[in-house]
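Re: Re: token formats

Sure, here are both.
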Amino acid sequence: MGDELTLEAVLTAVDRLLELSPREVSSAGELWSKLDNILDGLLGAAKFDAARHGRLAELVASLKAAAAQFLQSLLNMRRGGPLRDDWTRFAERDFIKFKDEVLALREFLVGEADFLKFACLRARLRDLGRIDPEKLFEELHEERAISERTWVLLMAQPNAWQKALKNREVSGELARISSWLLDLQEARRERRCLARRTAR
């Protein structure tokens, strides 16, 4: 998937940090930098749902604060000097606190997996030129945003729609239509959730 925003990419970056031991703190800085960039994209993608975006923003802000404290301790440790052993202990302590925040974020990501996959797909639809059209249609099909009949027709004549997508106007129209379909799918989900709550 390259640099496309997906929930899988976020979880991969999160898990790489969680797999590090306190003795591997020196490797965390680069991994955090990558996750930090991905989280900014995820926050943007989730803006259309105020409640979930708010909770995600809180978790990310808390994580960034813990990361800043840890990175400062890591910098002090790398400077060496007579207090190096003390700074190493501080860095390991702050790394554990940092990982606690990463774990809290992961729990949210897993708990809201369906919503976040949907949000990432919506975000990628903004720029069809940067994504794999076949992958896009696969995800739309999985989300039931396009019918089985439409899916069969698309897969039966892949060359036709691949050529059409090279036309900027066609790509733009497809992006708008796909967004509408996804909006409709989200509305259906919300109605189902409401029906389940009222049935209790």
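Second one below.
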Amino acid sequence: MQRWVKIPDGRFLDANRIAYVGKVETFNRIDEDGTEMGLAYAVNLGTDFPRESQINVVGTKEEIFSLLRGILGGTAASAAAPTDQA
């Protein structure tokens, strides 16, 4: 079953195909005119180990952490086996 998560640029990614999640990085964003736009966050996601299967997702703190909650929250919930309480 596919579990789609929306990345900040508007595309969708199947969360079940993600093989690894890289470290969250921060950097200062600057527009074309050199105006500072504030702090941005980026995370590297991979659906396989070759470089062609990697995606670098950039967004605000809320966008990146919402994406990670969608990816990691669903896998943790589906991996937990239901317990039978009698």
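Residues 4-73 form one domain. The chain has one domain: 4-73.
- S.
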